[in-house]
Amino acid sequence: MIYALLAWLEASALGHVMRGSGVWMYAIVNLVHILGVSTLFGSILVMDLRLLGLWRRVPIAALASVAPSLALTGFLIAAPSGLGLLATKASEYADNPFLAIKLAAIGLGVLNVLVLRRLPAWRARDVRQLAPAEERQLAIAGGVSLFSWLTAVAAARMIAYW
Fold first, then answer.
1. What is the distance between the alpha carbons of residues 114 and 112, in angstroms, rounded to a whole number?
2. Predicted confidence pLDDT, tens digits, the chain (162 residues)
3. How many CB atoms lie within 10 A of CB 89?
4. Which of 12, 70, 118, 141 is most buried, most CB within 10 Å of its CB?
5. d(C-alpha 130, C-alpha 127), whole Å
6. Which DSSP string do the residues of the chain spell out, in sequence order?
């Protein structure tokens, strides 16, 4: 299944454009991808560290008013540019375990965001003082997030060395 999907992606119009547009196309898409990932991870890192208990004088609500939209912007840049990079020679990555690790880590990170946004503690963060148990819930979500996105970034780098 994965082989067929990767072969399809490589044979797609996107794959042909990425391979046929010269070295500059790949370089520019790679740069855009790095900028997207940096924006995504940078905003997530600050939010996760605050959820884990750093910078307690900074209200979670203050970071939550900026970081999630910045992270989403980074994700919306990183995902399509990453797809373009993958489409260039997708079939070569079929047996690369780091691609599977990266995709699973991204999935976990996205799932964690969806869970976090449904936690009563997240919704109450700017309304009232959180109870210690609620702060622990947010800290766990921050830890899972940090783990998943660090794993995704590390696995992405390792793809090239497999």
1. 5
2. 889 999 999 999 999 999 999 889 999 999 999 999 999 999 999 999 999 999 989 999 999 999 999 999 999 999 999 999 999 999 999 999 999 999 999 999 999 999 999 999 998 988 888 899 999 999 999 999 999 999 999 999 999 898
3. 14
4. 141
5. 9
6. -HHHHHHHHHHSHHHHHHHHT-HHHHHHHHHHHHHHHHHHHHHHHHHHHHHTTS-TTS-HHHHHTTHHHHHHHHHHHHHHHHHHHHHHSGGGGTT-HHHHHHHHHHHHHHHHHHHHHHSHHHHHTTTSPPPHHHHHHHHHHHHHHHHHHHHHHHHHHHHTT-
Neighbours of 22 (CB within 10 A): 8
* Tokens standing for residue 161: 């060395």
Residue with tokens 């991870």: 41
Are the CB atoms for 70 and 39 separated by under 8 Å? yes
The residue behind tokens 């794959």 is 15
Among 153, 161, 47, smallest CA distance to 106 is for 153
